[in-house]
Amino acid sequence: MRFIGGHVSIAGSIANSIENTLKIGGNCMQIFAGSPRLWFRKAFDDSEVQKYLNGIKENNLGPVFIHALYLVNLATPNPEMLEKSINSLVMDLQNGARIGSSGVIIHIGSHLGTGFDSVKDQVVASIERIIGLTENCDLILENAAGQKGKIGSLEELSFLIKKVNNPRLKICLDTAHLFAGGADLRSEEKIEKLIKELKDFDLLDRLACLHLNDCASELGSHRDIHANIGEGKIGLDGLRSFINQSEFLHLPLILEVPGEDKEGPDLKNITLVKGLV
Ligand SMILES: [Zn+2]
Ligand SMILES: [Zn+2]
Hints:
By secondary structure, the protein is an alpha/beta fold. It is 36% helix and 14% strand. It contains 9 helices and 10 strands. The site of one zinc ion has 4 residues, from loops.
């Protein structure tokens, strides 16, 4: 059985994520551990955590990932912004450990045009600090679509993984980001090439999950616009072929699509994906 779920809301209580997942037919999920647009973070309430854990058990739900807030930038030249980024990630990881989360997924951030070389030491030191201050929850780096300054090419991810050299540092691949970054997932040959690159970069063993999104922007456009499954430029055949590669079969599939009603991953998209595996 494959783990398939989507990004769902925890509005009201973290325990509400369970009903939100069951409603869309998911058996795993991704959540924010607070507002994605505010720095403010607090520890989850004990009774809500208990309620949540009971719900996970009763409904036999699989891995739960936390997506870090969008403001995080480990490559920022602004020291205050860097401290806020690190503190929010530490809090997300601590909350993650309390709910048994499989990991906190982050967009590493942007060097704002100065180049990866100029920020890589800061990013490595920040990741080491975050991992050193936490336990029992992984930190998962997501690939980027290659938008100007955004860190997260396979080469950059590989550098960070090797440099930090900690088993708690993992990778999430987003299909829309791969495609917008130039990897043509519609071609079996290009998928094989991508898998070879992952091998060569020593990233294959580090994969924690896939973000399964169709892509509304063109191949290599470096524009990150998610589309509903089968409604984007990758299409059903490309997505089917990608997720069924033997190297990826063990990976949970997390949807971050707009949904029919623009309210996020829904039953229709999840059902479509169930038909692809
Ligand atoms: Zn993603
Ligand atoms: Zn994206």
